Amino acid sequence: MRESQSWTPFLDRLGDVATAAILPHFRTRLDVDNKEARGFDPVTVADRAAEEAIRAVIAAEHPDHGILGEEFAPVGLDAEHVWVVDPIDGTRAFISGLPVWGTLIGLKRHGKPLAGMMVQPFTGERFSGGPDGALYRGPGGPRTLATRPCASLADATLFTTTPHIFTPEEKTAYDRVERAARLARYGCDCYAYCMVAAGHVDVVVEAGLKAFDIVALIPVIEAAGGIVTTWDGGDPSEGGRILACGDRRVHAEAMRLLAG
């Protein structure tokens, strides 16, 4: 049975506590830890504080719900409702002082993304999606989110966080899409997906994502009229190779190129 209730008010509460935990640390000289023995996967006190704050509210209000977060151990993953949280998606941007990071809060029901929100505490923006539609709130006032028509990659704006996220084989596939696109830009992490929902960007291609990188963004883009899948058209909710588009025509073209 399809769930019709609005989760936006509760998502807002979670966004509020995350904002309160994160903003005091942004553009300060904070310590940065590395979670990877090889490479660089940064985490800060702000990441941990925000996830702790979100988990506390969920545990108090919905103790029967599960939680999957980036910074702490999962709980209750067999529950009907599971929250999927990335307290700061784009920590590299965060520690660089750039406001293109965001808090991702998603809700799955029976394993399927149901509702989600991207909160950008510094700019005061929120992008949400779910059974009650897709909504932007921020400077300039609230408005409904809607993707834009784009029939061909020749007319498309394409984003990826960085070409360095791809393996050599994936990079070859990605390059075919980039060469076909009108404009390619790098960076922005979750912000690029929100720009798809807002009708400013047409395609995002990425790889190596985790569930907490994408679950919150799927309902936002889908409620705005777009499509999110894996590169081969499969379920994107576990992460992996992700293709997000505002128009199904450009999605089909990008899939063909990614497949070779």
TrEMBL record:
Its cofactor is Mg(2+). GO terms for molecular function: histidinol-phosphatase activity; inositol monophosphate 1-phosphatase activity; metal ion binding. Keywords: Amino-acid biosynthesis, Histidine biosynthesis, Hydrolase, Magnesium, Metal-binding. InterPro entries: His_9_proposed, Inositol_monoP_metal-BS, Inositol_monophosphatase-like. Its EC number is 3.1.3.15. PROSITE patterns: IMP_1 (PS00629). It holds the Pfam family Inositol_P. It comes from the Bacteria. GO terms for biological process: inositol metabolic process; L-histidine biosynthetic process; signal transduction. It catalyses: L-histidinol phosphate + H2O = L-histidinol + phosphate. The keyword Amino-acid biosynthesis applies. Mg(2+) binds at residues 70, 86, 88-89, 213. Pathway: Amino-acid biosynthesis; L-histidine biosynthesis; L-histidine from 5-phospho-alpha-D-ribose 1-diphosphate: step 8/9. Belongs to the inositol monophosphatase superfamily. This is Histidinol-phosphatase. It comes from Oharaeibacter diazotrophicus.
